[in-house]
Amino acid sequence: MAEAAPVSTAPDAEPGAGPSAKTRKGERRRAAIVAAAADLFRERGFRATSLDDIGAAAGVSGPAIYRYFKSKHELLSVLIEEAAITWRAAVDDVLNSEAPPLETLERLIDAAVALQLQNGNLRTVWFQEFRTLDDAARRKLARLDRVTMAEWVHVICEVRPSLTDEEARAAVLMVDGLIRSVSALNTSVDRERLARVMKDMALGALLALGSPVSPVSAVGRP
To answer: Model's pTM, two decimal places?
Structure first.
């Protein structure tokens, strides 16, 4: 299937609808397309998903997607970039609060958990399909990721001063993997309780860094 087509910028509208109705309908349709793409890219992968598949899941025809995105690659780029910007905004909101280091770390974990539960598919696609993006998009997202990583490392090193930057960086990557793994979890636990479990595990792991653990306590014996 062709991956690009001429783009029409005219939003969809029903006859007689005013500009605000056109805008709302276009926004709803675009959001449905992005949500469907996130689900299908995560489940099937980018290459195995066609625009017709996305359109069917979003309730629009495949060609109608070209009114919003030039190609499947652009849709992927927009989807991943929006996930990165949302995450970046959440981090900025926490860091701008100027709270003590431990509270800042807790709030960063809260933000990561909340975004994972709300937009887990977007973050999963971000990690699965990053290499599918063009060079410019990869460079832009890599810059965002480096800045965010540096800020996490700084906060963790403030909470655990004995750690090196490399140790803190490794810890961030492992905790991020722990939080992202919930997307593959099939559970009946309600989201509020699941969020508490995720936070307890992530925060507990980070606070244990640099602390000696005896063989007895490691296996949970008294």
So the answer is: 0.72
